[in-house]
Amino acid sequence: MNEIRPEELKTRLEGSERPLLLDVRQEWETKLCRLENAIHIPIEEIEIRTDELDPEGEIVVYCHQGVRSAAVADYLRQLGFRNVRNLIGGLDHWARTIDPTMRRY
Fold first, then answer.
1. d(CA 65, CA 89)
2. Tell me, what's the pLDDT at 1?
3. What is the extent of the structural domain holding 77?
4. From CA 14, how far away is CA 40, in angstroms rounded?
5. Is the pTM value of this prediction over 0.70?
6. The sheet that has 39-40: what strands, in order across it?
7. What is the pLDDT of residues 48-68, one digit of tens each?
8. 66-47-38-96 Cα dihedral, nearest 10 degrees
9. Does some domain include residue 47?
């Protein structure tokens, strides 16, 4: 499975084995809103910073609406990362379905 719905991610984050959250948005976007404990690697830096990620670990990639993160997830899978998923609809969908207090932009 290459994607994860916000509801499923919320459940996973409440459990004991949490996936690594990878935020690929621009820095200014992370200042508006973000998921707690996410690692921030902007999309334009991903090629030179993949060594910061565990190819065997579970990674959930997210961005604003899920487009950039889908591209990064595909890229990581091509590099051999085994368990990478894209957050469907990005943080905007998360804010609409899980956390209505999250700032939207």
1. 5
2. 61
3. 3-97
4. 21
5. yes
6. 3-4, 83-87, 58-62, 20-23, 39-40
7. 999 999 999 999 999 999 999
8. -10
9. yes
In a domain, 104, yes or no: no
> The tokens 């379905």 sit on which residue?
97
The predicted-structure confidence for 78-101, as pLDDT tens digits, reads as follows 999 999 999 999 999 999 999 999
Which CATH number do you get for residue 70?
Answer: 3.40.250.10
Is the CB of residue 54 less than 8 Å from the CB of residue 15? Answer: no
Residue 86's H or E segment, with its range, is: strand 83-87
Rounded to whole angstroms, the Cα distance separating 100 from 77 reads: 32
> To the nearest 10°, the Cα dihedral for 45, 68, 40, 76?
-70
What does the block give as tokens for 95? 């804010």
> Could you give the CA distance from residue 39 to residue 46 in angstroms, rounded to a whole number?
12
